[in-house]
Amino acid sequence: MTRPQKEFSKVIAAALALGLLAACQPTVAVQAPKDPITINLNVKLDADVRVRLEEQAEEDIESRSEIF
């Protein structure tokens, strides 16, 4: 092989290696979900009941302070 042929084969080998590396790059696709997003709000609402009980307890303590 002559010198230009060796250099050309090196260039071809490098291009082939770069092509293979570029072909192995992962792709990322952003897609919307097929099903709609649902948010389940099963929340136990007992804070209002506790506030009412606390207010009632304070009223009972104030009205019957001799018991305590």
Automatic annotation (TrEMBL):
Pfam families: Lipoprotein_19. Residues 1-29 form the signal peptide. It comes from the Bacteria. The keyword Signal applies. Keywords: Lipoprotein, Signal. This is YnbE family lipoprotein.
